[in-house]
Amino acid sequence: MDTTFSIFGLTAHAYGLCAAIAAAVLIIGMKLAGKKLPEGTASVFGVLGMVLGIAGARLMYCVCNVSTFTETFENAWLMLNFFDGGLSLPGLIAGLIAAAAITARVMKARFGDVLDAASIPAGLSLAALRFGEQFTDLGIGKVVEEGFFTQNLPWLFSFSRMGVSVEYRMNVWGYEVFAGVVIFVLMLLFTRCLVRSGDKAVLFAALFGASQILLESMRDDGHMLLIFLRVGQLGAAALVMLALGLALRGASLREKWIRWMVMILCAVMIVLLEFSLDGRLTVGTPSLGRDYGVMAAVCAVMLLNDCTALFGHGKR
């Protein structure tokens, strides 16, 4: 499904419009948040971000699906068709980080300060991007059985009918929009407490990464998989761990050991839960709600581990 509309006789894509809005939100928000940065920093970042962001998103998608192009399509040159579908959010984020690094060098600003300014509106920007997924085949969640939630909170799910049979799926794109808005609000509320350059970006990485570990697991769309783990989920876990490493600057060796042990235990729990969700591990009666409830709790522990470390050392 690809929703399109006509404007001035040209065919426009609804998802593309949402992506354009997301880019505008990020650049305008960065300009407002980075008033102490050299004039023009947001504009330079915007230009570099669009080029490197799309390149990174496409590159990661192609790397993860190289067999599709070489074996299924039997034409590796199709990887260069950027506008023919196939982009990766972790690749986009990597491209934006590279754009921030180059922008900082060009504008003679701190890399951490540039990332901080971009991270404040990033949640709202991602919410706009995720909103567009409803107009595509993205954002589709796993099948759930009819029950209390589907009957009382139907807006949390999408459904399709085949005769008298109804199939319910988690409305993941909607969850993603909500998560993006919440991240944006939390960034506005708590970033003033952080004074070290780059710590605002670390907070965003922790918030976004922890939420994505859970939300990416709920998806049942696309084919960005490594064995049974989604690439987006692995990228999110890497963000949470990177955030912890940066948050622990100045911490004692004892604190580092304790916090990393907590992180490793949480990561093992996530993998075991994915085994359970995938049917490779059976613990009692299979239950999607139970497994995702536990996963949400584990992700919350990972987030708290990052944030307590960050706020404990970010004020010093």
Element order: H for helix, E for strand: EEHHHHHEHEEHHEEHHH
Query: What spatial form do the alpha-carbon principal axes imply?
Result: globular
Helix percent band:
55-70%
List low-confidence stretches: none
Radius of gyration: 20 Å
Largest sheet: 3 strands, antiparallel
* Number of helices, counting only DSSP H or I runs of 4 residues or more: 11
Average pLDDT number:
86
Cα separation of the termini: 51 Å
Q: Which structural class should the secondary elements be placed in? A: mainly alpha
Tell me what portion of residues adopts beta-strand conformation: 5-15%
Strand order of the largest sheet: 3-5-4
The total strand number stands at: 7
What would you say this structure looks like, in words?
The protein is mainly α and 316 residues long. The chain has eleven helices and seven strands. Strands 3-5-4 form a three-stranded antiparallel beta sheet. Helix 4 (89-106) packs antiparallel against helix 5. The termini are far apart. The model has no long low-confidence stretch (mean pLDDT 86).
List keywords for this structure.
316 residues; mainly alpha; two-stranded antiparallel ribbon; 11 helices; globular
